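Structure request: Sulfatase, Rosistilla oblonga.
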Amino acid sequence: MTNNNSDMQSSRRHFLASSAMRGGPLALACLMAQKASAEPKKPKMGTEGFDLKPKQPPLKPRATAMISMFMQGGPSQMDLLDPKPILNELHMQKFPGKIKYDNAAQASSKVFGSPWKFKKYGEHGTDVSELLPEFSTIVDDALVIRSMHTGVNNHGQSIYAMNGGRPLAGRPALGSWLTYALGTQSESLPAYIAMTDPKGLPVAGVLNWSNGWLPSLFQGTVIRPVKPRILNLQPPPHLDGEIQSNYLDLLQSLNRRHAEQRTGEHELQARIANFELAERMQFAADEATDLSRESKATHAMYGLDQPETREFGERCLIARRLVERGVRFVQLFTKNQYWDHHGGIVKALPASCKKIDKPAAALVKDLKQRGLLDSTVVHWGGEMGRLPVIQNEANIGRDHNTYGFTMWVAGGGFRSGMHGATDEFGHHAVEDQVNHFDYHATLLHLFGLEAENLTYEQNGREQSLIDGQPAKVIEKLLA
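Returned structure:
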C-alpha cells in the first residue's frame, strides 16, 4: 500500500512539474499580451512639426509640379474625345441595352447622336471633336484617357473621389497631400493654390481645396479671378512701410514665444507659418499675378485678346507663372455645374468649349517651350461624363455618367496618345479601366511617392489618399 501511495505522489509531482514546464511560458505570454492590449496607446510626445520646406521623395520623381483644370459638371465624352458612330446610326431610336439613369424623372430611352464631327490628329490618330480645334494642335503631347471610372453618379461624391480619394466629404484634397509630402520650392508663395471662376464656386465649394484633417498649413490658398486676387493681403496706406514692418516684427516674436511654450500644437505652428507667408506674399503674389509683364504674343496665345477666352486665359497664364516660381500645385475651377448639360447641350457645350479650349492648349504649348512640361503634370477633366441617351426631350441634354468618362493629361511623365475604351455606346469603361484611386496612385508615383506609404496619423489611424483601396500604378499611362 505504501509503495502505491509513493508511486501516486511521484506521478503527481511529475505531472505538475512537467505541466508547469509546458504551459507556464504559454500562460505567461497570454497574460502579457492581455496586459499590453489593455494598456491605452501612448500619445506621440515631442515637437514634431510641419513646414513647407522642399522635401525629397523616396523615389526618383519625374514630375515636380501640377496644374489641374477641373471642369466641374461633367464634359460629354462622346461629343468631345470619345466618338461613338453607332449613336448617330441609332439617333432618336430606342437604346438597345440597359441604361443606369441618375435622373429617372427626365430620362429617355432615345439615343442622341453627336451633332459634331470628329477627325483624327497627330501621330497616334487621336480622335478630336470640331468643338476642340486648339486641343487638336497639342494631341502629340497629351494622353486622352477614355476609361475613367468612379461609379458614384452624384456630383459631390464623384468630386470627392476624384479630388480627395473617396466619395466622402472632409478628406484632404489632392493638392494638400502633394504639399504635405513634398513642400514647395517657393518661400514667398503658397505651395497649393486654387483659382476660382468669377461666376461662382464649383459644387462642394471650399471643400475642393480643403486640407481635411491634415494641418491647415496644407490648405489651398484662393487666388480670385478679379483684382484684388488675394483678399486682405495689402495693408491700408496708413500702416504701410516701416509701421507695418515694426508691427510684424513684434508679432513674430510674440508668436514664437507663444509657440515655444506649446510644443506639439501643430495647428498653432501652421497658423503662425501662414501669417509669416502672408507677409512675404505681399510682394511676391502681386508680381506673380501681374500679366502686364508678359508679351503681347503670349497674351494672344492664351486668348486674352478675345472676350470668350480672356478670363480663363488669364487664369491659365497665371498658373504657368506660379509654377515657374516654384508653386507645387495649382487647380483652376469652372463655375458651379458649368459642364452639367442636362438640357440645352447643343448650344451650351460649344460655349463651354470655346471658353477653355484655346487657353488650355496654350498652357501646354507655353510650358513646353519653356522647358517645364517634362516636369509639370497638366490635367483637364471633370468628375463625370454623360449618357448616350436623351435627357429632357423638350430641351435636349445628357444625364450623368461616372461608369466610363474621359479626361486628358500631359507632361510630367505621362505618355501621349489614347488609353482605354468605353463600350460602343460610351456608357461603361470596358478596356483598361482607370479608377480614381488608380489615377491617384499613378500620379503620386510620378512625383516619386508611394501611395500606400504616404500617410498621416489621425485619431490613431494611418490615413492616406488611397485609403486602403486596391490602387495600382498603371504603367500603360507612363512615358
